[in-house]
Specification:
By secondary structure, the chain is an alpha+beta fold. It has one domain: Sufe protein. Chain: A. It has 4 helices and 4 strands.
């Protein structure tokens, strides 16, 4: 009888602990890069006003007070399946475009995962206007590397 009560009490306590467990998103993970940034991963130099950026439209540059487009490159985030690196195009503090410069490259499976995950991550980035985005199911390492490089670019941009 005593063993049965102890077993029942332990099971109830374990179940309560399990149900109260909360997971954390990848965006809240340690933003520190896995390796020191390389020279090629540094931000591109600021462009002089009127120095024609490929992403700036002529109409946008004609508007009075329109913010000049600028690009910022995130550091290379190493994942078990290869590097991830993104470049942001910003108009003021608004993210207008995300370009993936490097992506995981561990064969056909990585290609398939990236083809599905990168557009979803890019879409979420543009909607959230920041690095607090959800990881894509089935693309944990790609998502983690993308978010780390994205956060690095945002840090360099000062947003």
């Amino acid at each position: 009888m005593r063993r049965a009560l102890l077993t029942l009490g332990g099971t109830a306590a374990g179940l309560a602990a399990l149900l109260s467990f909360k997971t954390h998103s990848l965006a809240a993970a340690d933003p520190a890069p896995a390796s020191p940034p390389s020279v090629s991963a540094m931000a591109s130099p600021p462009m002089a006003p009127g120095a024609g950026s490929a992403s700036a439209s002529p109409a946008a540059s004609k508007k009075a007070g329109a913010a000049a487009a600028r690009t910022v490159t995130g550091t290379v985030a190493q994942t078990p399946y290869g590097p991830m690196q993104v470049r942001l195009t910003l108009a003021g503090t608004k993210i207008t475009k995300v370009t993936v410069l490097q992506r995981t490259n561990d064969g056909v499976e990585s290609d398939q995962i990236d083809k599905a995950a990168i557009p979803a991550l890019t879409s979420e980035t543009l909607a959230a206007q920041g690095a607090h985005i959800d990881a894509v199911s089935g693309a944990t390492y790609t998502s983690s590397g993308y978010i780390k490089s994205l956060q690095s670019a945002l840090d360099q941009a000062g947003t």
